[in-house]
Amino acid sequence: DAKTTQPTSMDCAEGRAANLPCNHSTISGNEYVYWYRQIHSQGPQYIIHGLKNNETNEMASLIITEDRKSSTLILPHATLRDTAVYYCIVRNPGTASKLTFGTGTRLQVTL
Amino acid sequence: EAGVTQFPSHSVIEKGQTVTLRCDPISGHDNLYWYRRVMGKEIKFLLHFVKESKQDESGMPNNRFLAERTGGTYSTLKVQPAELEDSGVYFCASSHTVTKLFFGSGTQLSVL
Among A31, A37, A81, B48, which is least packed, fewest CB within 10 Å? Predict the structure, then answer.
């Protein structure tokens, strides 16, 4: 599986957009990009996933570069409840259930 | 819709004792998974059930761990005998498809 690289931590002001980057330069053609987050003392929560087209759902948007070597998760209007550790995971659909959580990005949303 | 439920939320046992963790998946989800985070490390996959069958148990650390899913509904994860290094948070997840997992809040296991 392709390795991902994320910043250790980020801050974002409440109400502003939070842009979380992820590098996955060794991604292969059939691998998807998945994002999960873990809010303190809860289990991981699925956010979004995509292959090559940009994706949007009620939680976030996922922007994948044309060469697919990096992506950005966007929380359009961050709230305090979005404070969490965000994980970018690259998997092919056949093994998407066997998630490999790295260290993720700790996003702190502040007033 | 009820989420994934795990029991107990916390368990404190002594080394050498047995502990059984339970997971109730979302109704209708054939896929059930166990993950864990130990000693402040990364969350790691343990195993995957499809209904009552073990699809992938490559992440099970050793034979002190036994997972079952009788009847394809709830699952149990038994640790016998527990060791100090088993301390951590054990997460259960379920899914309808393998691309979107729903996790429970976990069981915090402390082995003293």
Answer: A81
Q: How far is B54 from chain A (nearest CA, A)?
A: 13
CB-CB under 8 Å, B101 with A46: yes
- Digit-by-digit pLDDT tens for chain B (112 residues) are 689 999 999 999 999 999 999 999 999 999 999 999 998 799 999 999 999 999 999 999 999 999 999 888 999 999 999 999 999 999 999 999 878 899 999 999 999 9
Measured between CA atoms, the residue of chain A closest to residue B50 is: A97
Residue A4: Cβ within 10 Å count: 23
Backbone torsions φ then ψ of B89, nearest 5 degrees: -110, 130
Closest C-alpha among B41, B75, B81 to residue B55:
B75
